[in-house]
Amino acid sequence: MLTKQGGLLLIDKPQDFTSNDIVAIARRVLGTKCIGHSGTLDPMATGLLILLIERQATRLQDRFLKLSKVYRAELTLGQETDSWDAQGDVLRSLPVPALTLAQIQAAAQTLTGQVHQQIPPFSAKKINGRKMYDLARAGKPVQDRFNTVQITAWTDIFFDGKNKIAFTLHCSCGTYVRSLGLMLARALGTTGHLTALRRLSIGPFNVQDAFDGSRLKTTPREEIVKFLKEPIL
Q1: For the chain (length 233 residues), average pLDDT per consecutive 10?
Q2: 209 counts as catalytic
Q3: Distances (CA, A) of 48 to 16, 61, 71
Q4: Which residue in the list 16, 21, 42, 89 is annotated as catalytic?
């Protein structure tokens, strides 16, 4: 059994795993049920997921959930999906106007500061105890939900001159990058969806220091325990 002190385990989540998949694997490998995490990543997304292991760490979950985040994302213009990312079904297509990098940077600037964003229908946000993606998959009507987040900056914006935009988003907790991507596309006179998303950091913690999540099942417990960090902010 893992020692009761526990700690933080930084995981680089692979694509097509849910955050709960990673928690379930860690519980089996580490031999403890007392594991939480610092904020959900969509199955399509990769990158930093902080596992909070044993009571010393899990009791601090709210503090870790409120930390700021940094993401690297790719947005494809012209097609909107029901999930607002590449895992959804296409709802509609719109032509992509001729754009310049300067226009994209200016549009991103309008989405900086306090931003009122729509919560994606396919999300883990709960309504009356049920996750929105469960309601959406069941074909249940879901009233649009919104929240207000803080967008600190859009940096390293890249445009391929056609329909692909990449950007790094510095944002508060509660930000749905899929939503910001769709808002950016609409601000540019078209629509779009995310085709890649990677979480680079959570507060002071960086994905460069994370354990490769694809190795979690096959690495001996004693080796994984060496990666535990003190739950200190």
Answers
A1: 72 95 95 92 95 93 96 98 93 97 98 95 58 54 84 98 98 96 98 98 97 96 91 83
A2: no
A3: 14, 15, 10
A4: 42
